Q: What sequence folds into this?
């Protein structure tokens, strides 16, 4: 995914997950995307990948760096969704370090929804 | 940044639901026959007591809880100025409104005066806490400015109420009491609830519809007309102005309600989610109904001012506005606000760690729709009973309204057990 241009990241979370440093299997982007699909916006009932909230995903060895957004600034589920992204990655034994940053530029638009996300929402 | 879920809004929402249930049980206890006496003369001790239980104990309590929940969110997860002060404010305001309702019921002037001061102190603490939070964040939008305007009008409505309470005890104001009453009602009903519901809807309505790119220009017109309506009406009441001044106030407020309904339609046109939920759909139906009634009242009051100003019509309009639009919108939004609050509190920190339910699994939208439909059917029958001066319809409508409202409060409150 391409990195968006705009303001610098507004929030960040960096955690050293439990079990870091032990012998681990490598992860790739597809594995991370599948993990992220387990995190849902509980109001919309659509996962963060199909909502198009993930702007940028970099995987280097056991380090995962994510730039993401939410459907609206001032989202009541901000902490739950961003925390969910972080937690689901930290659980994976192949991930040593997780960096999740929330950005508001460019703003999320419905065009970012995947076909599966559109179908789930009854998008029109 | 907010690092944990504040429990403060729970206290307000739970207390609001208890007050709501108490009001409905009280109505059912006399088979809603009090409504017949209320229709004849709303200014009776039991009527005042019930009105303050409903408006302060339920509607304002829920509204304060919603402000405590949503302001930090709208300000992108900034903390409240002081959560501890919020708990103190909760205790002071709860004691104030409960004592006030008891004082009215007992027709005890000293109790009314004393607890009116306490309730106003609770409002002042609330205004200070929210005002300091907004000023410190310095992030002014139509939503935050509207919230600030709402709280400002709540303070003025509370001040007018406290002065009336003191007048019960000390008889300081003489006939000015009735003028204060008009200003108190107008500041509270149009200023506090009007600004709060409309400005929060500017945030919540697009959010639940997943609307993007909708025009926002009308939001300022809505606020402008509402402010013009309130600030033409308040001096008109205080200085006993001629009827045409009140009519201008009504026309401005009606314009705000009509533009608000039009703006909600604009938001719906830009939606990307098929179903926003029954509560949100109902909030729009109610806004359209409210706008239609207000628009109808403008020419009607110009041609037949005596009919519109009659006690019977005032009771109908008052119930439709306060119970229909204000109360109905609060009930409708509760079906979203409570699951949001509970999900965030119970499941928010579990997301990504284990399978957690969606909001839709916490509350059944079809049941919400059925209960809200029955509530507004009851309200319609009750309003017809007031209009036709039929005690039978008043008791039937009032009884249905109270019974289904109890079921609804129980159903929404049951989310806290999921």
A:
């Amino acid at each position: 995914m391409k990195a968006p241009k705009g303001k610098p990241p507004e929030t960040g979370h960096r955690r050293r997950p439990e079990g870091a440093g032990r012998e681990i299997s490598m992860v790739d982007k597809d594995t991370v995307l599948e993990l992220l699909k387990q995190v849902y916006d509980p109001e919309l009932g659509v996962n963060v990948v199909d909502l198009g909230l993930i702007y940028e995903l970099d995987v280097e060895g056991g380090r995962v760096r994510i730039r993401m957004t939410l459907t609206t600034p001032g989202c009541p589920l901000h902490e739950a969704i961003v925390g969910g992204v972080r937690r689901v990655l930290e659980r994976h034994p192949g991930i040593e370090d997780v960096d999740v940053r929330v950005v508001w530029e460019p703003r999320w638009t419905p065009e970012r929804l995947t076909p599966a996300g559109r179908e789930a929402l009854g998008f029109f | 940044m907010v690092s944990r879920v504040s429990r403060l809004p729970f206290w307000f929402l739970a207390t609001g639901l208890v007050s709501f249930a108490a009001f409905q049980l009280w109505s059912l206890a006399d088979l809603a026959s009090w409504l017949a006496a209320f229709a004849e003369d709303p200014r009776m001790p039991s009527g005042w007591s019930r009105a303050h239980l409903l408006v302060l104990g339920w509607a304002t309590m829920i509204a304060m809880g919603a402000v405590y929940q949503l302001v930090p969110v709208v300000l992108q997860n900034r903390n409240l100025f002081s959560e501890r002060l919020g708990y103190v404010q909760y205790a002071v305001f709860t004691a104030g409104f409960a004592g006030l309702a008891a004082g009215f019921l007992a027709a005890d002037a000293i109790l009314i005066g004393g607890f009116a001061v306490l309730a106003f102190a609770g409002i002042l603490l609330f205004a200070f806490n929210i005002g300091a939070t907004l000023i410190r964040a310095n992030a002014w939008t139509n939503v935050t400015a509207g919230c600030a305007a709402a709280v400002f009008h709540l303070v003025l409505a509370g001040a007018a109420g406290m002065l009336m309470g003191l007048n019960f005890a000390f008889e300081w104001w003489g006939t000015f009491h009735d003028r204060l009453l008009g200003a108190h009602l107008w500041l509270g009903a149009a200023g506090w609830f009007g600004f709060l519901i409309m400005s929060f809807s500017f945030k919540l309505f697009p959010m639940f519809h997943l609307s993007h790119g909708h025009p926002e220009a009308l939001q300022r017109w809505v606020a402008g007309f509402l402010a013009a309506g309130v600030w033409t009406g308040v001096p008109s009441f205080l200085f006993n102005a001629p009827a045409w001044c009140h009519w201008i106030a009504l026309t401005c407020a009606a314009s705000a309600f009509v533009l608000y309904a039009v703006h909600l339609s604009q938001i719906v046109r830009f939606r990307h989610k098929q179903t926003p939920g029954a509560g949100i759909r109902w909030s729009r139906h109610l806004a359209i109904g409210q706008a239609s009634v207000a628009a109808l009242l403008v020419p009607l009051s110009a041609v037949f001012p005596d009919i519109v100003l009659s006690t019977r019509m005032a009771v109908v309009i008052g119930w439709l506005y306060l119970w229909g639009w204000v109360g109905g919108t609060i009930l409708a939004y509760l079906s979203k606000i409570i699951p949001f609050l509970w999900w965030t509190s119970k499941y928010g920190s579990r997301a990504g760690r284990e399978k957690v339910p969606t909001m839709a699994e916490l509350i059944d939208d079809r049941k919400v729709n059925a209960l809200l439909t029955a509530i507004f059917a009851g309200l319609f029958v009750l309003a017809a009973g007031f209009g036709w001066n039929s005690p039978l319809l008043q008791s039937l409508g009032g009884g249905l309204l109270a019974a289904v409202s109890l079921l609804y409060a129980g159903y929404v409150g049951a989310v806290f057990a999921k």
